[in-house]
Each structure stands twice: as C-alpha cells, then as structure tokens.
Amino acid sequence: MFSLLARSVTLKRLASQYGMTPNGFARRFIAGETVTEAIAAARTLQGRGMRVALDYLGESVNTTKAATAAAREYVQLIETIVDSGIERNLSLKLTQLGLTIDKATCVDNLRRIMEPAARHDFFVRIDMESSEFTQLTLEVFETLWKLDFRNVGIALQSSLHRTEQDVRRMNELGARVRLVKGAYKEPKSVAFQQKADVDAAYMRQMRLLLDHGVYPAIATHDAHIITETRNYAGERQLGKDHFEFQMLYGIRRDLQTSLVADGYRMRVYIPFGREWFQYFMRRLGERPANVGFVLRAMLGEKSG
Fold this sequence. Notes:
Layout: H1 2-5, H2 9-18, H3 35-47, E1 51-56, H4 64-84, E2 89-92, H5 103-119, E3 123-126, H6 134-146, E4 152-157, H7 163-173, E5 177-180, H8 195-212, E6 217-219, H9 223-235, E7 244-248, H10 253-261, E8 266-272, H11 277-286, H12 288-303
Parallel strand pairs: 1-2, 1-8, 2-3, 3-4, 4-5, 5-6, 6-7, 7-8
Helix pairs in contact: 4-5, 5-6, 7-8, 8-9, 11-12
C-alpha cells in the first residue's frame, strides 16, 4: 500500500504543503529540506556522542541533466560539510546519479563525487535500492573499488536470497558493508517474505560480517537483533571499535541513546532535501508505530 501511495502525485503535493513546516508531521524522520538544517541536526547528535551520515534525498532520476545536477549538488555538499566541521560521512543512491539511464553515466557521476570525497577524507556509502538494481549497484561499486577508491562502502539487504553470497564477496574484497533488513516490497522469487526468515538471514549475515568483515555497520532498529549482536561480539571477544550500530534519524531514539551510554559506536543517518516524500513513505511502511506517530502529529496540528 505504502509503495503505491509513495507514487501518488496528489498526495506528494499535499504532503509538501504541511510535512516540513516547523512542526510538520515529517520532521520526526527528515532533518529538513536544506543542508543548513541537516548540519544543525548533525551537530546536535554529535553533541550527544553519536556519529552521523548525511543523506541528500533523491532517487529514480530519469534524465542525464538531472543526474549530473545531483552529482554537482553532492560535490557542493562535500565543500559545505568541510566548512561546517561536522563528521565527513555521506550516503547516496545510484538511481539519483543516473543508474536507470545508463551504467556508464552513473559511474561517471559517482567518480565526480568520489574524487573530492577522497581528497577531503570522506566516507561514502552506496545505499541499496529495490532488487531490480541490486546487481547493477554492486557492479558500479566494484568498478569504483577497482579504481582504488577505498573510501566507499555498500549497503546489503538481508531480505534478499542472494545477500549471504554478496556478504562473502564483500568480505573477500575487504569492503565495508552496512547490513539492513530491506525497505522494499520484493517478490518471493528474490526475497524472504516472512519476518522470521528475514531476521534469521540477518543474524547469519551479521555473524559473517563480525567474523570476517571490515568494520561492519549493523543497521537495525530491532532490539532483539541488537542484543544478539552484542552477545555474539562479546562471545568472540570483539572490541566495541570492531563495528558500529546504525539507525535512521528519528527512529528508536531510546535505543540510540542507550547504545551510546553503553559505549557502543552509534551512527545516525540524517536524511534531508526537497525530495523527501518517497523516503518518508517507506519509513511508514516499515513500521506501523511510525504511522501512529504521524497521525498523532497531524491531529495535534489540526487541534492547535
């Protein structure tokens, strides 16, 4: 349902009028529409002992001009972050850089970003999108890896049948992996359909990453998986600097705070930008509690 709503032009137009006002219903999950707002959010989180990664929202670009413009925006974002003094860590989607147009276009645009990122000591994480782009995304990643960019990492989705093999491949390369469950509705031919199966796959892949990976990112809001990760790391006598936990801005802030208090590295992904609607709808689809939060916020606005 949420994937269909995310494509609604009418709903997007209505949401844009109210979602990002100072007390708008999307503010819980989106730092703002400007880089200034994102940097302010990053400073607040860093002040609480958390690490940050900025995610300039955008995806499914369908013209070369728009893809090139997005690459330019990222290059400018790098300069802005350097001037701001916040942590130098970015997240991006390849369909924002032209993957749906042509792989070569995407590679060229990603190189335009990675070169200044390398000069300024940024780490850049390539997000994983729906399964139709999984193989292409990994091919682009390995192209950059072969060009000796070592400041780039990849996200993998535990829900896909292929992911355990992909984890082993990334471990073999020595690449840094961000392990997520997956936010896209996928067919049973390529993905597990039951939560228990996705969780079990996540646990297997988490262990592979902790045992053989390079500074893996365990990206989950699932308290049970977090506990199991902590226990496994303890059994293996792995230091708390061997990996990090990651969560999304505005989600399970209680867990974020408790992990920092317990001495774990905790990174928060901070999404921002005008193209926030699709991202926001996926967050609602992932967790029913998020829908309740938004409804309460909207009712509060109406009554106020």
